[in-house]
């Protein structure tokens, strides 16, 4: 068995997304008030302005679940070469990125929306590799 399992590209993509989503979720948990204040200001002129805490909570939950699923997925790739949980975790992360993209577009933060494309491309590559 190779150091990065028999799926080195998949494992590296999973590690990248695990760091991204777990760190983001932990940041929201540790600085909830700061994140709500920042996002509320960011969305002050958008249709989402009155729903920030609820939507941020939903994103937080999905980020943590996606991160946990991807951690389990890495373990399964190493132990049984099962791809289903890893694939589901990456698919959930891609859906989360679409939600974030919608928010950025509604806030008219086009540069922020554009920066999400990098993460989305990585997610889609992971989905492709885990399903091929």
UniProtKB/TrEMBL annotation:
Keywords assigned: Membrane, Transmembrane, Transmembrane helix
GO CC annotation: membrane
Signal peptide coordinates: none
Residue stretches spanning the membrane: 7-26, 54-78, 85-104, 110-130
InterPro entries: DoxX
Transmembrane helix found in the keyword field: yes
Organism: Polaribacter aestuariivivens
Lineage, uppermost ranks: Bacteria, Pseudomonadati, Bacteroidota, Flavobacteriia, Flavobacteriales
Membrane topology qualifier: Multi-pass membrane protein
Name of the protein in its database record: DoxX family membrane protein
Location relative to the cell: Membrane
Pfam families: DoxX
């Amino acid at each position: 068995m190779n150091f990065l399992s028999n799926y080195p590209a998949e494992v590296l993509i999973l590690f990248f997304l695990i760091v991204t989503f777990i760190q983001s979720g932990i940041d929201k948990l540790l600085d909830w008030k700061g994140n709500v204040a920042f996002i509320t200001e960011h969305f002050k002129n958008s249709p989402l302005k009155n729903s920030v805490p609820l939507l941020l909570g939903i994103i937080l939950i999905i980020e943590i679940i996606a991160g946990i699923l991807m951690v389990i997925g890495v373990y399964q790739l190493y132990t049984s070469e099962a791809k289903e949980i890893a694939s589901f975790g990456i698919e959930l992360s891609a859906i989360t990125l679409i939600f974030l993209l919608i928010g950025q577009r509604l806030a008219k933060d086009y540069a922020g929306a554009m920066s999400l494309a990098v993460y989305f491309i990585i997610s889609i590559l992971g989905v492709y590799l885990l399903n091929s």
